[in-house]
Design a protein that fits this description.
Length: about 120
């Protein structure tokens, strides 16, 4: 396979569950899993409003969200539907503009972090 080496950081909170998900999703290695996600994204070209929104948060806020995602994964809980297709409908606008309505996934994660129940 022609390839270029790439490096990325995996948050500590996600490390264990990502490695479990690699096997659960039918991949042999973390590298193959990441490549599968990249290929899926390139094939579908869907927007990522919730996950790109998370990327713009502080590291501390990202850590809280990663902890919540880890807890959900360990209990088998999901937010339902396809994370990349059905749940991501609204884009997070650039900073400095009025805050847009957050995607449902982002709302649910933020509600969980603040201790509110989701509807």
């Amino acid at each position: 396979m022609r390839s270029t080496a790439a490096k990325f950081r995996l948050p500590t909170a996600l490390d264990e569950i990502v490695r479990l998900r690699v096997k659960e999703a039918g991949y042999e290695t973390l590298s193959e899993y990441v490549l599968g996600l990249v290929r899926y994204d390139l094939l579908t070209r869907k927007t990522h409003p919730a996950t790109s929104g998370i990327a713009h948060l502080t590291r501390a806020e990202q850590d809280k969200i990663d902890d919540e995602i880890t807890a959900m994964f360990k209990t088998g809980e999901t937010l339902g539907g396809s994370w990349f297709e059905a749940r991501m409908k609204e884009a997070v606008e650039a900073s400095g503009l009025p805050e847009p309505e957050k995607p449902r996934v982002m709302k649910e994660l933020l509600q969980r972090l603040s201790g509110k129940k989701t509807g």
